[in-house]
Amino acid sequence: MIQRLLIIGWSAIVFLISSLTLPALAADLTSGAKLFEVQCAGCHANGGNIVRRGKTLKLKALQQNGYATEAAIAGIVTNGKNNMSPYKDRLNQAQIQDVSAYVLDRAKKGWK
């Protein structure tokens, strides 16, 4: 009986531990700002877009185009789309996360 309870107890503990998800590492907005200035500001200064006016990094445009999350922004940064080149060969995953978080943060603050 005790062995059975121990097995059930350990199974529950293993289940609980395996069902936990570790939080992603927090993005570094300072690093994201620096990366944005070097890699993105040429086309997206102050959240704009010198190539396609309607495809800005302003919150309303991000929402309308389905890119109002860090993950969605990271997808565009990583793989590019239309006139935007992919950055997966220029930036590592942490840098992509940092710049994506920075873009969303600035968008939510109206790029001020």
From TrEMBL:
Cellular compartment(s): Cellular thylakoid lumen
Pfam families, per the entry: Cytochrome_CBB3 (PF13442)
Keyword list, A-Z: Electron transport, Heme, Iron, Metal-binding, Signal, Thylakoid, Transport
Keyword Methyltransferase included in the entry's annotation: no
GO cellular component terms attached to this protein's record: plasma membrane-derived thylakoid lumen
InterPro entries in alphabetical order: Cyt_c-like_dom (IPR009056), Cyt_c-like_dom_sf (IPR036909), Cyt_C6 (IPR023655), Cyt_C_IC (IPR008168)
Domain Cytochrome c: 27-107
SUPFAM superfamilies recorded: Cytochrome c
GO MF assignments: electron transfer activity; heme binding; iron ion binding
Cleavable signal peptide: 1-26
Family the entry assigns: Belongs to the cytochrome c family. PetJ subfamily.
Protein name: Cytochrome C6
Biological source species: Phormidesmis priestleyi ULC007
Taxonomic lineage of the native organism: Bacteria, Bacillati, Cyanobacteriota, Cyanophyceae, Leptolyngbyales
